[in-house]
Amino acid sequence: MSWINARRRRPVASYAALLLGLVVVALLYGSLTRSGGTAEASAPPASQQDITAGKDLFEANCSSCHGLQAQGTDQAPSLVGAGAAAVYFQMSTGRMPAKEVGAENERKPVTFSLAEIYLIADYVAALGGGPPIPTAQQVSTVGADTALGSQLYSANCAQCHGFAGAGGALTYGKDAPALTESTPTQIYTAMLTGPEAMPVFADGVLSPQAKRDIIAYITQTRVEPNPGGFSLGRTGPITEGLVIFLGGLGFLVVVAMWITAKRRDPRPTGTEQRQS
Prior knowledge:
Helix content is 54%, strand content 1%. It is an all-alpha fold.
């Protein structure tokens, strides 16, 4: 045992032990992340034919702003590394092609078919980097926890999009859009890519299951009955209080005008005094 103790006292031994520990930790972490990700289905790789067709569509409809190689111009950013999910969100909600350069993109009627959107997304994905479009299994809300989704939504989304996804105003004239028309795939891709002023909620921030829980809550609020009468957009107590205040104030003004119109001054006017 003396020769082991002698080798252990050498400085090289401590470095070797540290390196061995790091390797073991890396292997354990890799195995855990691989096992956790096997439940998620990945999008099938695009064929070269689809990429070529997508490139043709891109050059005909998008290159005037983003450049022939999607490298970006002074009118629009580079799409290299943006990923297919960003293309899907922007085009499936009608935000792209943009009607006005430099303006905040709002939801508009969709210009392209879903097949054309996927082709352009395949081409942009082939440029490298970026999240893929989630599959139907990834956005499925079957078995999702809407109660947990409500808590996650309140903590991460309600400050901008409102308690029930009705949208809200932001700083510098921007606004968070309403989620009442968004599909589960559009909500999922928005969380993956962070369009406009929205932050990116990568899987390290919100797990895929947490994203599904949030989507389940958002879609559930659309069909929930409102036990309180008029919903007022479900934007919360501030709007309700404002409506009550303005309505009450208007009622008091009308009552005051009615009382004033009914009142008769008993004192005679100057004309009546001269006639008498």
